[in-house]
Amino acid sequence: MYFKFGRPDVARRLFDEMPQRDVVSYNTLIAGYSNCGNLAAAGEVFDGMTERNPVSWSSMIAGHARRGDLVSARELFDRVPAADRNVVCWNAMVSGYTQNERFSEAVKVFQMMLQESRTSVQPNEVTLVSVLSSCANLGALDLGKWIDGYIKKRRMALGLFLGNALSDMYAKCGCIVEAKKVFDRMVEKDVISWTIIISASAMHGLSEEAISGFHDMLVHGIKPNDITFMAILAACTHGGMVEDGLNYFEMMSREFGINPKVEHYGCVVDLLSRAGRLSEAEDIINSMSVPPNVVVWGALLGGCRIYKDDARGERVVRRILELDPEHAGSYVYLSTVYASFGRLEEAAKCRLKMRENRVVKTPGCSWIEVDNTVHEFFVGDRSHPQSDKIYSMISSLGPRMKLAGYVPNTSVVSQFIDEEEKEDALFMHSERLAVAFGLISTKEGTTIRVVKNLRVCTDCHDAMKIISKIVEREIVLRDRSRFHHFKEGRCSCKDYW
Q1: Which residue among 119, 140, 432, 459 is the one 20 to 30 A from 86 at the CA level?
Q2: How many CA atoms lie within 13 A of 412 on its CB side?
Q3: 3-class secondary structure, 476
């Protein structure tokens, strides 16, 4: 109680005055310090204990994880005696990794837990919700399916938290039909349940289904929230449904009293920019009720890039750099624009300024799951044990792709190198390495599923269409904004993304 009212000093004094202290009193003090972020004091109490139980360990592990200190959390976890390593301790470590976006580590710890569970602890709903979240972010469909089977086998109730997590996993792994099946299995559904399905439809480019789901939600008496409107605006964006999107944007405040956040404005600017209505998009930004951020201006910059409105683009870049002097994309854009106009000296200055300001582009990273193991690839990565085979597959695909009509789009390569080197750089993009690994590691006809942390570039998008045709495989790629289903030389997005 004293921690709740900001008086840890009183709590500690009362603890020190206790004639006898048991493990419960120690744990209470540790939990209080951990919850308010004072890990040093919590550690002092923990170190002074002569007897510890699972609660002692899990409180300390969770406290370090909440602060983002996963090294200390893991060191503590590895020290937990076998007798004390119960499901709460495992959950503290798995949840800690998941909450800090260390998804691969969360999955690895869960797999360790399964090995121990044969003789002792079994995962519970809290464990599965955390792991399903990691599976969703990694695109680890096989493990997600295994968890679904585990839930059915143990006849676990599909409550709101577990049902939503399972549905979200299937949706983010590209299996929208399975996501809807889970949704239908759920006895109770809330706004999150409906929003997951609406968002899934939007990410897959099924704009009309997303809108239909939104209206079904209203019929069932569920009031949408701000995240629901993010999903419906994204659906309109991916479907090029500009007027519908603008109507839903107005509906949000008019009918549901939801004030638009900067993210909603970003969606509307993106909606207009993708459709080439750049002046309207800029007017929206200038009339926003909240200050525009880099993401909002970045959406307009994306439209400038698509429609080659370089004058507006240069102006937008200036605004972005005022907000974020280390915004790598802006420097790269300016450099490319200057180079295209033959203004090489100015292009070189952009590159120099990037180095002076130590601006670093976010590296492209892709994940693919094969045999229940998630493999990670960065651009130009050669750290994988099968790198030789991966690059051999990429080399063999090159001539076949060109025969099938592939023409490398070297304009997406920003480095000042010759054309041949630019082509080589394109073939080293992380999603191509992941796809090549999928081709050498799975049976013919198997769907290849890849997740990427950035938006897929135009050249890789063209390449994936060609690869899907020549290898006769479906390739499902989830990038930062949506899903792309490549099949027989075509993409589900119809080249509008």
Answers
A1: 140
A2: 18
A3: strand
Distances (CA, A) of 221 to 163, 191, 216, 231, 369: 20, 10, 9, 18, 39
Domain boundary among 361, 394, 419: 361
What number of other Cβ atoms are within 10 A of residue 409's Cβ?
Answer: 17
Low-confidence ranges of the chain (pLDDT < 70): 1-22, 25, 117-119, 339-342, 359, 410-423
Closest CA to 374 of 22, 29, 103: 103
Q: What digits encode the pLDDT tens for the residues 365-400?
A: 999 999 888 899 998 889 999 999 999 999 999 999
If one counts the domains in the chain, the total is: 3
Amino acid at 28: T
Beta bridge partners of 483: 478
Q: How far is it, in rounded angstroms, from Cα 293 to Cα 266?
A: 9
Tokens of 445: 């006809």
Distance CA 162, CA 156 (A): 9
Length of the chain (residues): 497
Using a 10 angstrom Cβ sphere, with 0-12 exposed, 13-18 middle and 19 or more buried, the burial of residue 45 is buried
Threshold 0.90, pTM exceeds = no
Structural domain ending residue among the three candidates 73, 100, 123: 123
Q: Are residues 375 and 344 in the same domain?
A: no
Cα angle, residue 441 at apex, residues 438 and 444 outer, rounded to 5°: 80
Alpha carbon 277 to its chain centroid, in Å, reads 29
Q: What is the pLDDT of residues 224-279, one digit of tens each?
A: 999 999 999 999 999 999 999 999 999 999 999 999 999 999 999 999 999 999 99
